[in-house]
Amino acid sequence: MTDRGLEFIPGGEAFFPRLLTAIASAQEEILIEMYIFETDEIGLQILDALVGAASRGVRVQIIVDALGTPHFTEEVVAQYAKKGVLFKIFRPLRNSWDFRRFFFRRLHRKTIVIDRDQAFVAGLNFSKEYAKSFDRQGKWDAAVVVYGSLAKQVRWHSRQLWKQLHFQWRAFVPSWRRHPKGINSYVVSDSQFGFRSIERTYSAALKRCREEVIIANAYFFPSHRFVRLLEATAKRGVRIRLLLQGSHSDVPLLKLAERSLYKRLITSGIEIYEFKSNPLHAKIAVIDLAWAIVGSSNLDPWSVFSNLEGDIVSMDPRFAYQVRRTLDEILTHHSQRVDVTSISERTFWARIKSSIAYYLFRYAIYLTRAFNR
């Protein structure tokens, strides 16, 4: 653990036992924001622990996203309310044709606050898929545990969202405020209050970097502006390595669009690696061993322009070293570098599909911005 209370947790094998221990030790409150909360063996373990905490008098409040967790119906919510575990559903879908709610402004944050002074900020959902990082059926992701004033920032945003949903009147409850800047900070994105903040955070760090950038991002389809910044950074002699999903991507259409960027990025001097054995779900990065980010934000249209996201940004070199050591291991043992030759050998039909996907997702960027103004 670094000074100021930051701890990097790579993989679900370490994350879920640590989370269950924290829930078991809670004395006052547990606040959770989660996109996907499955009722499989992992989800049921967490639910049982939360019911146990509620029986001890701990206040338990959970917000889940309606799209990510559709099986949490009003009946299920009422059932757990009787046990002292309170749920709220973020932006319920009115019907199957509710296009705007279906695609835009989803709750994508994954945060757990324990007793006001401890918080987990993660990219992992509550699902057995994340319990075995390198299993063919698993997904690799990471989390960070924070304490003290930084945990209070996470708690403030979680409580404000709960109040917002309780009163059902957005203007009544402020859900955005600037926190004091320090060596570590909690960066949130929300299309209605602070969209594009994650892209700006990355951009500020890239403009200052001098030696090395490693970005591991599950769903990588950034704006033209961000791609140009990556190219300019590489031209300054900075080594840039991108760790992206491979052929096991759980969103194949986005992977096709992403691969249409490969030739441009590689010819600019940027190294691209694909995760080999199973889907990558991480959203982490390290720059110059002096800056690191861990959280829920992808570099795609929905995270940048639409969803509620939360990430820990640290300028602690010791924490950055923890993140880099993990990424180095994955780049060495669990990924494969993409070269120009392999891109050139793709079939004509594969290139056509990538081009179509590219323009679909470019259009999605403009659509996402339009629907969230």
Describe this structure in words.
The chain is an alpha+beta fold and 373 residues long. It folds into two domains: 6-172, 2-Layer Sandwich (Endonuclease, Chain A); 184-371, Endonuclease, Chain A (2-Layer Sandwich). It is 40% helix and 22% strand. It contains 13 helices and 15 strands. The protein has helices at residues 12-25, 41-55, 74-81, 99-103, 148-167, 197-208, 224-235, 252-259, 262-267, 301-305, 317-333, 340-344, 348-371; strands at 6-10, 29-34, 59-65, 85-90, 111-114, 118-122, 142-147, 184-189, 212-217, 239-244, 271-275, 283-287, 291-295, 309-314, 335-338. An eight-stranded mixed sheet has the order 8-14-13-12-9-10-11-15, sandwiched between helices. It has a seven-stranded mixed sheet with strand order 1-7-6-5-2-3-4, with helices on both faces. Mean pLDDT is 87; it is low at 169-176.
Keywords for this structure?
single chain, eight-stranded mixed beta sheet, seven-stranded mixed beta sheet, Endonuclease, Chain A, 40% helix, 373 residues
The CATH topology of the largest domain: Endonuclease, Chain A
Total number of strands: 15
Measured by DSSP, the beta-strand proportion falls in: 15-25%
Q: Which word captures the global form?
A: globular
Number of domains: 2
Report on the biggest sheet. Answer: 8 strands, mixed
Distance between the termini: 41 Å
CATH architecture of the largest domain: 2-Layer Sandwich
Mean pLDDT, nearest integer? 87
Uncertain regions spanning at least 5 consecutive residues: 169-176
> Structural class of the helices, strands and pairings?
alpha+beta
H-E string? EHEHEHEHEEEHEHEHEHHEEEHEHEHH
Largest sheet: spatial strand order: 8-14-13-12-9-10-11-15
The fourth-level CATH homologous superfamily of the largest domain is: Endonuclease Chain A
CATH class of the largest domain: Alpha Beta
Number of helices: 13
Taking all Cα atoms into account, the compactness measure Rg is 20 Å
Percent range of helical residues: 40-55%
